[in-house]
Amino acid sequence: MSALPQSRHHGFRILIVDDDRSNRLILSAILHAEGYAIVEAENGEVATRVFAETQPDVVLMDVVMPVMDGYAACTAIKSLAGERFVPVIFLTGLQDDDALVRCVAAGGDDFLSKPYNRTLLKAKIESLGRVAMLYSTLSEQHQQLTWHQGRQQADYLIAEQVMENTIHSDHLERSHFKYMRAPSTTFNGDLILLAPTPSGGLHVMLGDFTGHGLSAAIGAIPASETFYGMTAKGFGIVDIAKELNHKLCRILPTNLFLAAGFLHLDANGITAQILNAGIPDMLMLHGDGELQRFASQTMPLGIAKNAMHDLGRGETFSVPHGSRFILYSDGVIEAQAPDEQMFGQTRLEACLQAARIPEQAFDLLLQDLVAFRQGYPQTDDMTAIEIICDPKRLSTLQVPGQQNPPGAKRKTHWSLQFRFQADSLQETDPLPLILQNLTELQGFDGHRESLYTILAELFSNALEHGVLDMDSSLKSGPSGYTQYYTERAARLSALSDGYIGLDIEHLPAGDAGKLVIRTRWSGTRLDPETLDHPPVAFGPSGRGLLLLASLCESIRCLEDGYAVEAVYLWT
Amino acid sequence: MSVTSTPSADGRQVTISVRGRFDFSQHQEFRNSYNQPDAGLNYLLDLSAAEYMDSSALGMLLLFRESAEARACQIRIVHCREEIKKILVIANFQKLFVIE
Predict the structure, then answer these.
(1) Could B59 and A279 be called an inter-chain contact, meaning their C-beta atoms sit closer than 8 Å?
(2) What was the pLDDT predicted at A103?
(3) Residue A26: in which H helix or E strand, if any?
(4) Could you tell me which of A69, A82, A81 has the C-alpha nearest to residue A17?
(5) Does an H or E element contain B7, and which?
(6) In chain B, which residue's Cα lies nearest the Cα of A342?
(7) Is A11 left (phi over 0), alpha (psi -120 to 50) or beta?
(8) Residue A401 has pLDDT above 70, yes or no
(9) Cβ within 8 Å, pair B66-A330
(10) Which chain B residues contact residue A304 at CB under 8 A?
(11) Where are the alpha helices (H) located in A312-395, listed in sequence order?
């Protein structure tokens, strides 16, 4: 094509449209010498055909031509070029401004008047050629950007679906707790998880991952599996948090972590535990409007393996009648109004306390939040939930997407023995592990909650009244439970001697199974009279020996008051 | 530039200042501010002009700490405003950083 292979314009093609053959020759010679490739057309109609076939980069267009003139041809060619920018330079004998206006109006980009100035011609072609290249680069970048946006959107949809499956929103709906989940982008990356405990209580977790989208969804999977799994097995929130911390430290990169707040509400609705790992103050709103704050006590999860080393077994406290818990993510207090002011915790608390009826407090907060923001865009996900301490409400909660252990097992004969000395009593909560063992040996479908309750009652009786010599009358009174559990924790950590033994034997009894559980302990003797006339408040769930008696086939005192045997029949 | 990095005369101390919003958009700048190859440096992170910090900024601090530890460097966070200090305390970062 080009006579000069070293030409820097190699490959650049120019279409010359002129009905005058000698004009075409002159222009062609000038430009060919520069290294441009040339194609020609003698009128507008031929020009459109040649343009479509050869796809030139620049068009030199005469104005007055037969069949189709320059203006019409220019319009046609610009349309044929589509997304591509192809400069059209009009060749005109006219000198005036009017000519330029007409050229531009017809879609032309520049014009050149006769007689042709060689230097000017080359300069105009070069300059317009640069513009065309710039345009083409931008166009390509735009295409890439659109493609990447599409990919990201697809990833977001995946993440959204995963979050949905993880949180089980329909389960959240049916819990009848009031909540708000407002995403800042496609979906909300915060977690709200609710699950009943085997003893009929409630675990709640509000979690806020650093980052959005996929990174939140990735962390959500192990977080929720751990939360649901361990809650179902009877683990407490401190153990769950520690395990979750350990897992996330392993899985998440250095700069990603989970700020989380945990709440454990007992089935009686009277006692609770809280663990705040990096979310804003968790609030308990009393019936009289008093507000109690539970501030962050440890690092968010997934940062340091030993972060929760000094938390011990967590603190239990009393919940006054008519109280409610309110948990929220930092997106709520950092929500902005048009003047860029933040909502803030002070305003949030004032709003809750301003409600004349506590039942309205949460709704008022949500309304005030909307009013404050005045539609200003969200930069962070906003999440909030209210938990009412009502035992009746808790009993209706179901376990989301629970997998049941595989089919009914044959009832077999086996026994387990456990013995816990003082140091292991201080370190571990053995109940979930014991229940796990029983379940794996025998299934016990449909009976796990009852078994957990029985084991928990027996164990806590042995520990609190046997080994620690606690007085359960301490529990009566307004902050009685808090006092009781503080004292319990103190005595346990000071313990140097003592043990609890558990003997569990299972035998087939016809079609049914018979489970015999014996607990024995050192320390204070249990008066056998207590079993016949159980006191009303006794044991961790407050439902006491009465409940044991109703669940079990029989319950009796052994070894002169240092052991209790409970028998459970099941089918 | 919302992140500036200034070495001391003897080169043993580097003062990093963050101005305005400290969030993910400062990611690259912040990373560049502590990418000295030397070991045993003293970093002073001056947050007096930082108006706001979000969780991704906390994440960036963790990366900073990781890089510093690998080179036996120290980090001190200085001149925090109340709001910034509060965010660091809620996350219990006083256990990971010296905050003055």
Answers:
(1) no
(2) 84
(3) helix A21-33
(4) A69
(5) strand B3-7
(6) B52
(7) left
(8) no
(9) no
(10) 95-96
(11) 330-333, 345-354, 361-373, 391-395
Q: How long, in residues, is chain A?
A: 571
Residue type, A139: S
- C-alpha distances (whole Å) from A210 to each of A179, B52, B57 are 21, 15, 9
ipTM of predicted assembly, 2 dp: 0.90
pLDDT in tens, A169-181: 777 777 778 999 9
Strand order in the sheet with A382-388: A179-182, A382-388, A324-328, A282-285, A291-294
Residues of chain B with a CB closer than 8 angstroms to some CB in chain A: 54-56, 58-60, 62-63, 66, 89-93, 95-96
Chain B CB contacts of A380 under 8 Å are: 54
Q: What is the DSSP letter of A65?
A: -
CA–CA separation, A289 and A280 (whole Å): 20
- For A496, residues 6+ apart whose C-beta sits below 8 A from its C-beta are A422
pLDDT at A433: 87
Query: What is the rounded distance in angstroms from the CA atom of residue A547 to the CA atom of residue A452?
Result: 12
Task: Give the separation between CA A51 and CA A159, rounded to whole angstroms.
Answer: 48
Q: Which of A254, A259, A295 is opposite residue B55, by nearest beta carbon? A: A259
For A262, half-sphere exposure in the C-beta direction (CA atoms, 13 angstrom radius) is: 29
Query: At CA A133, angle to CA A130 and CA A135, rounded to 5?
Result: 110
**Where do we find the tokens 């299972």?**
A506
Q: Decide: A461 and A539 in contact? Cβ < 8 Å.
A: yes
Q: pLDDT, tens digit, for every residue of A142-193?
A: 999 999 999 988 888 888 888 888 877 777 777 778 999 988 877 788 999 9
* Helices A21-33 and A118-167, packing angle to 10 deg: 70
For B31-50, the pLDDT digits (tens) are: 999 998 889 999 999 999 99
Chain B partners of A257 at a C-beta cutoff of 8 Å?
Answer: 55, 58-59, 62
Q: List beta partners, residue B76.
A: B44, B98
Q: Is A450 exposed, middle or buried (0-12, 13-18, 19+ CB in 10 A)?
A: middle
Q: How far apart are CA A14 and CA A28, in angstroms?
A: 9
Backbone angles phi, psi at A289, to 5 degrees: 95, -5
Q: What angle do CA A481, A487, A493 make, to 5 degrees?
A: 135
Distance CA A547, CA A477 (A): 22
DSSP secondary-structure letter at A342?
B
Strands (DSSP E) along A279-413, which ranges?
A: 282-285, 291-294, 316-318, 324-328, 382-388
Dihedral sign, Cα of residue A273, residue A275, residue A279, residue A280: positive
For residue A115, whether the previous peptide bond is cis, meaning omega lies within 30 degrees of 0, is yes
Which tokens go with B42? 């003293």
User: Using a CB-CB distance cutoff of 8 angstroms, which residues of chain B are in contact with residue A259?
Assistant: 55, 91
Both tokens of residue B78? Answer: 């200085």
- Which of A254, A298, A380 comes nearest B62 by C-beta? A254
- State the count of interchain CB pairs (< 8 A) between A and B: 53
Q: What is the pLDDT of residue A538?
A: 44
Judged by CB atoms closer than 8 Å, whether chains meet at A296 and B90 is answered as yes
Task: Tell me the chain B residues in contact with residue A345 when contact means C-beta distances shorter than 8 Å.
Answer: none
Task: Please report, as a single letter, which amino acid is at residue A469.
Answer: D
Per the CB < 8 A criterion, the answer to whether A564 and A519 are in contact is yes
Across the interface, whether the CB atoms of A278 and B96 are under 8 A apart is answered no
